[in-house]
Amino acid sequence: MKKLRYILIFIPVQSLIIFCSISCSHDLELVAELDTVCFDTQIFPIISSSCGISGCHSGINDNPEFNASNYESIVKDVKAGDPRNSLLYNSLTRVYGNKRMPPDEPLPIKQRTLIQIWIEQGALNTKCLNNTNTTNNNNDSVCFKQDVQPLLISNCATTNCHDNISQVDEFVFTTYESTTSNDDAVRPFLPGESKIYLVLNETGDDRMPPPPLPALSESEKEIIRKWIADGALNSDCPSMICDTLELISFAGQIWPVVSKSCVGCHNSTNSKGGITLDNYSEIITVASEKRNGISLLTGVIRKEAGFSAMPPSGELDDCSIRLIELWIEQGMINN
Asked: pTM value?
């Protein structure tokens, strides 16, 4: 998409405004020369992250006037080829007053222009995603292997739930393939129609993980929502730098790993093996206990002989394991 990228990014903002006010709506020949704007990778992420959030237009018990969770609902407020007479575009370009959308801050002009060109091109449900590329190095994206899979394994793919053996309701969340094999569980780009996300926001016995297990935090639910909204890719974004040179930070480096990969099974409600890892003191208790001269925490995450392999499905990446080892060697400081 070199031509479009050039127009949207490299020309000055003043020229962009002139270009859009003169050309985007009137010069159909120029619009036709632009590369196709893709709904799935360019338009939907803008609308879902700006409009399709909880309490606004997510399609889940909120404002019924507009549903931003999928293409079919979004396009109802669009007149293909005519952005000026499209309710969606008019709402997003009404940058002043109490009726502007989003209400807190208007979209950047580049995003509004992109939506305008998409409508000019016919507001099609264009899919330009290369599904053969499972690696995603965009730092703004959610990565399945590093961000989503640990949450699923720790909170869902547990004994008597959605592991390889139990397979409750025929859902298995141990691998990417099993997680996405059931169309009801995950519908790429449509978190509002994906059961794996919807049940996280339920109440009572319908909520997952089921009570009395703790619910996922809002930030954890947002990770899963964004992963689905971005296409539910089998993305792997290993960190290019493993920062082991300085003193290892418990709050910044250890707790994020433990909370995401371990706490779902080892909390005050669901203390598998009689072990809880809800806080610093409980973690150092496990890290200080030794078996054959090896820290219990190190032994389980390295899946050493004589230790229960943790997490039971999947494994921590090498950097996370090394950070935990060094933190233990450095005295398990609460910093």
From this structure: 0.49
